[in-house]
């Protein structure tokens, strides 16, 4: 291990904070490259950056399709797939709804129901037009917009792994605002230990998963929220079928998968679906495991995690068969 | 002698707390949309624990752009050591779920689990630490 350098870095971007750690001869160089990759991806995919590819597609909604890069095309086509798989529980065209609730957050008031209904009519992944030959993307109707909030970080993490591999890094992790991907094992050969945030107690964990070459992504109602003047709490994961924050009996879902984009999308989909329906979805994704925390703070883990999940001291859990 | 030992423990615990959040949780912090620009301005400063003046200090954190996470703590320093941290008030909407008195225990719990990084961590713990930091900076001798 003498030649392996240990490097850590933290950078801001994608509306969050990222930390990375890499072991390898070129660990520092790899982390630097990961930092640049983060900036490059954000400049392609952020709908808030004027002139980004996603921003252009949104601006041209109802007017024309835009030529996009291979990376943007890949995110959009995979997002469209997940939207179809989940029958709209995850919807890549959720932009107008996210914007509306974002305004609600500033005024600390839930949007008017009529406004929600109006905006909801614009949310429909079937209106995302992708042409694989010309590599173009477009939205059918004016006012529609793409929002990659539920999948973009997952895509970015997969790209970061690619950078690590290019630099010959055998062992690393990247954590984009809580979306974790582990590469290889730790230098001593042991798995990476990824803590799972307790959804109701800050600075506490419900447990940890020991993983090698896996993504561990958590979606929870505690991550971003606001209180309305009525005292009701509104969190950030919106149900594209109702237009309101998801209320499916869960407070947190962690997806563990080989691919970080899949883990990112599935953690959202499972959160929106709820436990029973979520398990049915999971059946279609062999190799993807999940940790569900329900509203009474009961922890349920899928059977594939039995060996690698360790609960925190005061946490009990049940194992469910996928 | 026992008191001194306890004070040192607290000091170590606090140091662990600051380090843990800066290093371990650092990347797991999720920033609320619109507040993310503030993230750049929300580092936890390095407090020199050797230079704390005795006294009681109030530390505040204004709570970000929307003041959701406003925090106020009272830190007591005696014989140059942090001996007590009390939360005075918090507007953090998640606050009812967070028993800050046992924050130390939970930091130790996270320590005992020895995780490399955390999936799904949030910003709010940092808001709490900001107010502790504010108090400690006041306690720090010039």
Structure write-up:
The complex is a heterodimer of chains A (322) and B (142). Chain A is of the alpha+beta class and 322 residues long. The mean pLDDT of chain A is 93. In chain A, the strands form four sheets. In chain A, strands 1-2-6-7-10-13-14-15-17 form a nine-stranded mixed beta sheet. Chain A has a three-stranded antiparallel beta sheet with strand order 3-5-4, with helices on one face. A three-stranded antiparallel beta sheet of chain A has the order 8-9-16, with no helix packed on it. Among the domains of chain A are: 48-139, ApbE-like superfamily (T-fold), CATH 1.10.3980.10; 191-320, ApbE-like domains (T-fold), CATH 3.10.520.10. Chain A contains eight helices and 17 strands. The longest helix of chain A has 19 residues, at 27-45. The N and C termini of chain A lie far apart (39 Å). In chain B, helix 1 (2-25) crosses helix 3. Chain B has a three-stranded antiparallel beta sheet. Helix content of chain B is 39%, strand content 20%. The model of chain B is unreliable at 23-37 and 93-111 (pLDDT under 50). Chain B is of the alpha+beta class. Chain B has one domain: Sufe protein. Chain: A, CATH 3.90.1010. Classes of the chains: A alpha+beta (322), B alpha+beta (142). The interface between A and B is large, with 56 and 40 residues. Strand 8 of chain A pairs parallel with strand 4 of chain B, so a sheet runs across the interface.
Summed over residues and divided by their number, the pLDDT of chain A gives a mean of: 93
Summed up, the helix count of chain A is 8
In N-to-C order, the SSE pattern of chain A is EEHHEHHHEEHEEEEEEEEHHEEEE
Rounded to the nearest angstrom, the radius of gyration of chain A is 20 Å
> Would you tell me the structural class of the helices and strands of chain B?
alpha+beta
Weakly predicted, low-confidence segments of chain A? none
CATH architecture of chain B: Alpha-Beta Complex
List how many beta strands of chain A DSSP finds: 17
> Strand content of the residues of chain A, in percent?
25-35%
| CATH topology name of the domain at 191-320 in chain A | T-fold
Mean pLDDT across the residues of chain B is: 60
Rounded radius of gyration of chain B (Å): 15 Å
Helix-strand sequence of chain B: HHEEEHEH
């Amino acid at each position: 291990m003498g030649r392996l350098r240990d490097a850590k870095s933290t950078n801001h971007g994608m509306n969050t904070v990222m930390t990375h750690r890499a072991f390898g001869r070129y660990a520092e160089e790899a982390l630097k490259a990961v930092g640049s990759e983060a900036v490059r991806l954000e400049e392609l995919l952020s709908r808030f950056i004027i002139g980004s590819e996603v921003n252009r597609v949104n601006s041209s909604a109802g007017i024309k399709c835009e030529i996009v890069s291979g990376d943007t095309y890949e995110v959009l086509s995979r997002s469209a797939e997940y939207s179809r798989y989940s029958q709209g529980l995850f919807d890549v065209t959720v932009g107008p709804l996210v914007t509306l609730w974002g305004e609600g957050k500033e005024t600390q008031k839930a949007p008017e129901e009529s406004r929600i209904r109006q905006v909801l009519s614009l949310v429909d992944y079937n209106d995302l037009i992708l042409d694989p030959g010309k590599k173009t993307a477009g939205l059918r109707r004016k006012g529609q917009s793409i929002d990659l909030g539920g999948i973009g970080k997952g895509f970015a993490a997969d790209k970061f792994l690619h950078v690590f591999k290019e630099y010959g890094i055998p062992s690393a992790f990247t954590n984009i605002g809580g979306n974790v991907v582990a590469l290889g094992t730790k230098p001593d050969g042991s798995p990476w230990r990824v803590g799972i945030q307790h959804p109701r107690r800050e600075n506490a964990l419900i447990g940890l998963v020991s993983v090698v070459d896996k993504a561990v992504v958590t979606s929870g109602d505690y991550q971003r929220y606001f209180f309305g003047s009525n005292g009701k709490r509104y969190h950030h994961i919106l149900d594209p079928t109702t237009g309101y924050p998801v209320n499916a009996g869960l407070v947190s879902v962690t997806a563990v998968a080989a691919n970080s984009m899949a883990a990112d999308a599935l953690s959202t989909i499972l959160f929106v679906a709820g436990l029973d329906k979520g398990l049915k979805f999971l059946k279609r994704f062999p190799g993807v495991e999940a940790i569900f925390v329900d509203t009474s703070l009961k922890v349920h883990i899928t059977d594939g995690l039995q060996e690698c999940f360790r609960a925190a001291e005061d946490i009990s859990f049940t194992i469910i068969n996928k | 002698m026992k008191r001194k030992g306890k004070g040192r423990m607290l000091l170590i615990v606090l140091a662990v707390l600051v380090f843990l959040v800066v290093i371990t949780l650092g990347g797991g912090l999720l920033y609320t949309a619109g507040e993310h620009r503030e993230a750049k301005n929300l580092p936890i400063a390095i407090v020199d624990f050797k230079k704390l003046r005795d006294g009681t200090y109030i530390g505040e954190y204004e709570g970000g752009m929307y003041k959701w996470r406003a925090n106020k703590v009272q830190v007591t320093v005696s014989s140059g050591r942090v001996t007590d941290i009390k939360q005075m008030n918090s507007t953090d909407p998640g606050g009812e779920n967070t028993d800050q008195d046992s924050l130390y225990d939970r930091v130790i719990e996270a320590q005992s689990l020895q995780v490399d990084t955390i999936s799904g961590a949030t910003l709010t713990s940092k808001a709490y630490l900001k107010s502790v930091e504010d108090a400690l900076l006041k306690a720090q001798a010039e």
